[in-house]
Design a protein that fits this description.
mainly beta; four-stranded antiparallel β-sheet; 110 residues
């Protein structure tokens, strides 16, 4: 995703308490909701931006402190991609390893 010219990189000042709000270019159905905003976290999750609704999507969720990470997102057609690059967990067992992983949300019209 880093080579995509339309990909946006989240900066540290976009995060409040480890969460960044993203306005989607489309809504996607999630149970009985039409989701138009999501929160991306430094811990590796995408979750509801509405505090009254409690859902979380977890491509990689850590219970340990996250030591470092670069997060990018991209809108392409009816797809919303989030990519965590150089994700390093702040635990002694994982300090030497970087992970990269991605989540994709897409609109399906029925």
């Amino acid at each position: 995703m880093e080579s995509e010219e339309n990909a946006a990189k989240l900066s540290d000042d976009q995060f409040i308490h480890g969460e960044a709000l993203i306005n989607l270019h489309f809504g996607f159905p999630f149970f009985d909701l039409n989701v138009t905003q999501v929160v991306v976290t430094k811990e590796g999750t995408v979750q509801s931006a509405d505090p009254a609704v409690n859902w979380i999507i977890t491509p990689l969720n850590t219970e340990f402190e996250m030591a470092s990470c670069n997060i990018s997102y991209l809108f392409q057609d009816n797809n919303f991609y989030v990519q965590w690059n150089n994700f390093r967990i702040g635990h002694v067992s994982f300090k030497e390893y970087d992970f990269s992983f991605q989540d994709n949300k897409y609109l399906v019209r029925r």
